[in-house]
Amino acid sequence: xxxxxxxxxLLCLPYSSDLSATPLFVHNHGYVLGExxxxxxxxxxxxxxxxxxxxxNSSFGGTGLIRDQLNGDYxxxxxxxxxxxxxxxxxxxxxxxxxxxxxYKTPKASSLLSCPAANEFVAIxxxxxxxxxxxxxxxxxxxxxDKPYGVSVGRxxxxxxxxxxxxxxxxxxxxxxxxxDLRYLQIVDEDLYEFALDCLGSATRVKIYHIEQFxxxxxxxxxxxxxxxxxxxxGL
Length: 236
Prior knowledge:
- This protein is mainly beta.
- It has helices at about 1-10, 90-95, 190-200; strands spanning about 25-40, 50-55, 60-70, 70-80, 80-85, 100-105, 120-125, 135-140, 150-160, 170-175, 180-185, 205-215, 225-230.
- It has two domains: about 25-125, CATH 2.40.50; about 135-230, CATH 2.40.50.110.
- It contains three helices and 13 strands; from the N terminus they run αβββββαββββββαββ.
- β12 and β13 (about 225-230) form a beta hairpin.
């Protein structure tokens, strides 16, 4: 009985934010990089805090439709919106007009009944500007020998872990220095995903190598785009 009680108390411990942690009981947990452009209230009693982020650097408004091969079309709205309870308001308004990283979750059952957005706020971080300690990380699970691959240069502006299909990590890259050319890539290594989070948190420009792999029965053309190598390029 004592062990059962201890296990229950561990589940009740408050979640502490960390760029490698994943909260329990959520469909998606991720991070968005961009400029916090607005914070307000929603609902009849004005008890739900809402916020908007302009994705990446100098991107254009409008809905970006990005292919998510496992979960269907992945919508990354720009501006990207989120909700929170009133407790987060003061922390958020201090960052309006600044480039930040928003940690979020999309729970299976939202406690914010008047939230107009699917994303719930977890924490906000200033962009660190620190160069990642590791400059290169490669996948240990993807074989690229004698296979053609592509290369994209830009910033990782969204990283997400989904539990809908076991471990499903993904990133969205803003190609170039600015604009709305966004590229969705899947990741199969947790270490590579953690490195992607380091690059996102510091807004470091990266060179991402990606490969198309054939998988029948999932999507119309049967191909997935996987990131298999990430190089931090802070001098670009």
